[in-house]
Amino acid sequence: MRGKQDRPADQAGLRKANLALILDLLRGHGQQSRAQLAGLSGLSKATVSNLVSELEVRDLVRPAGIVAGRQGRPGMLVEVQPRTVSGIGLEVNVDYLAATAIDLTGEVVFECRVPGDVIALGPERLLDQLAELARKVLAAVETQGAWTAGITVAVPGLIDPATGVVQLAPNLRWRKVPMADGLAGRLGYSLARITVDNDANLSALAEQTSGNVVGVTDLLYLTGASGIGAGIIADGVPLRGAFGSAGEVGHMAMDPMGPYCSCGSRGCWETQVGLIALLRAVSTHEDPVRDPALDLEQRLTIIRARAERGDRRTLDALQQIGSALGIGISILVNVLNPAAVVLGGYFATLQEWLVEPARREVAARVLGPDAAGARLVPSSLAFNAASRGGAYAAMRRVLDDPTLAPVQTAEATEAPA
Amino acid sequence: MRGKQDRPADQAGLRKANLALILDLLRGHGQQSRAQLAGLSGLSKATVSNLVSELEVRDLVRPAGIVAGRQGRPGMLVEVQPRTVSGIGLEVNVDYLAATAIDLTGEVVFECRVPGDVIALGPERLLDQLAELARKVLAAVETQGAWTAGITVAVPGLIDPATGVVQLAPNLRWRKVPMADGLAGRLGYSLARITVDNDANLSALAEQTSGNVVGVTDLLYLTGASGIGAGIIADGVPLRGAFGSAGEVGHMAMDPMGPYCSCGSRGCWETQVGLIALLRAVSTHEDPVRDPALDLEQRLTIIRARAERGDRRTLDALQQIGSALGIGISILVNVLNPAAVVLGGYFATLQEWLVEPARREVAARVLGPDAAGARLVPSSLAFNAASRGGAYAAMRRVLDDPTLAPVQTAEATEAPA
């Protein structure tokens, strides 16, 4: 049954779609006159003028000077309003919490990462710390006078997006944690504006929006953290699977009788290329790199330094992990045939030593010439990808429905509750 | 950029889309009056009457009697015309050729499978035999007075759909075989109406259209033949990847240092669960089941008989293959999270012995409860799935654009060249 679903249901729906279209065009093409927007959108000039006025009233676009018109008539340019609206992304991971805020132009207006032992904290105390971090972002954004479109939290696990409950996060040792509720309650922030999503899915969104693979429609993002997950984008659309748990690539059975994994199974890819496997491979038990007082960043700095000075054990370990990484990627490329596989997290941090051995395995094991067209691309966002993606996802609410942004009046510039 | 692409470009495009919509509604809902079609489509009654008339003139629908109307006014029913249009599917596989013809209602009007040693034949002689089979189907369909919408050929390999060239089919030992051209030339059939696609993709289409998983939007079809491929449907849409080679699951590296595969790599899934691996596992070199004079069907009959009478070697081999099947499926389920994994080919023929060990591995190795919702479903179409899917794909041409069907005049009922 085609046809009907594609049409907006009513006048209000049509108007929302047209407002969203104009906003998208301004974000994609930069400053434009109303006549240019009419040309790009296929809408009449009168309709465009009307839509632009509404976007101005909601503080989403602003005048941007005058350009000489073709018949000598000058045209007034408009552009997306920076700094008035923020999308906020938060990330919970095994070793750290992260936060990013972006504005409507996509510019990052706030970003930070704080180390933390999330497993030891447990869900309740973690939520306290996450709320504290969120308050810091909200304060920073409010200082700039911006209204927040929403908050999206990235978590490495299976999420129920409808309720914002983390169903299962083996690496955090979490089961059924009501993340959205817990955060909304602590912050006094509208539950309707908080969403929770898988970290890899959000990272893929970030890469596709602002990273090294902008515009690539078939890609795979691999988290390189304690857990290994994939965010899959196929033909431009996130692939989530029948029940939302696609991309659990860390649990591919690479070595069916191999070591036990946090999920209870054996020989999962994560046991070969997760952060813990990296630490085990590069060090003995007594090695300072395993000092519990160190955070992720410090550990990776030590490993990089050793690799740079040619330490044999470190180089052998990275070679072995790079190969295991490549074998797993070759499976994913045979299954999904992406144009790019983005290497996130520590895979990006240690790319000089991991990418070549990985590429060799991929070239040897993928059916078809040149790895069936798949490039391996280290992420430029590294450990910031998930919170960055969260910020884009949060902003999507307003980009898809600009009428959610409050109308600015002379008296009040406050957002509705 | 949204909005514009969704609208048909012009009046002719809109009319085609509406004709296709009416035809889809009649195929999905059975006999309907014009008033009912107006209700289902959202189009006016006058428009529907006009569209139905055009479909009648093109012999795609026919009157189907009278039903009492709500206000006492009788309504004339219409229904899809059976037997006037045929979609033809052909399949080339290592051990056999197959053909299916369906009519507009989806009913199979012709189906056959002939054994053959496709590798030994080589591309040119294979094309001769395939053309001979196609002539047989075309003759059968013409005898019934039907016009053919097109021919779609299923091949186990990487296909360039634009040119109909088989780029690489390791199990057939083929490289760059111009399948569409070769067939069109031999048949004197319009090249524009011949398409070539991957066997697993077409099988997935067949299963979703008429098999055991009708209407399931996230599924995976696994060929169980000499080659192992997957047809992937994600969120209702075939997943083909960036360059059309998604689903090459037979070459997943299950045992990186394992035996060599036809693709040149080592330890591919195919070397564990392909037909040749089955034959090796159930028999020694001298075993009659390996007699080159036997065809696939006869071999599987012998294996079934041995398993049924409890032959230890056979049962152990099937158990081992079932486990290897399940380990590979667990990887695919972790990556794709389908609602159903359809077991095709010999996996269906020997389902009594393969499904349980496979299910155990899947349950143990997929993250999330109950294999993340994935059911294992033996195919009801078995070795007919690919040609059946080809027939549906060929019919799609006319279903998407009913104006391709020739207008029937009193003098001539022939199709245009």
UniProtKB/TrEMBL annotation, chains A, B:
Q: Which residues form a coiled coil?
A: none
Quote the protein name from its UniProt record.
Answer: N-acetylglucosamine repressor
Q: Which GO terms describe its molecular function?
A: DNA binding
Q: Which CDD domains match?
A: ASKHA_ATPase_ROK_BsXylR-like
Q: Which GO terms describe its biological process?
A: regulation of DNA-templated transcription
Q: Which residues form the HTH iclR-type domain?
A: 21-62
Short name of one Pfam family:
HTH_IclR
Q: Can you name the source organism?
A: Actinoalloteichus hoggarensis
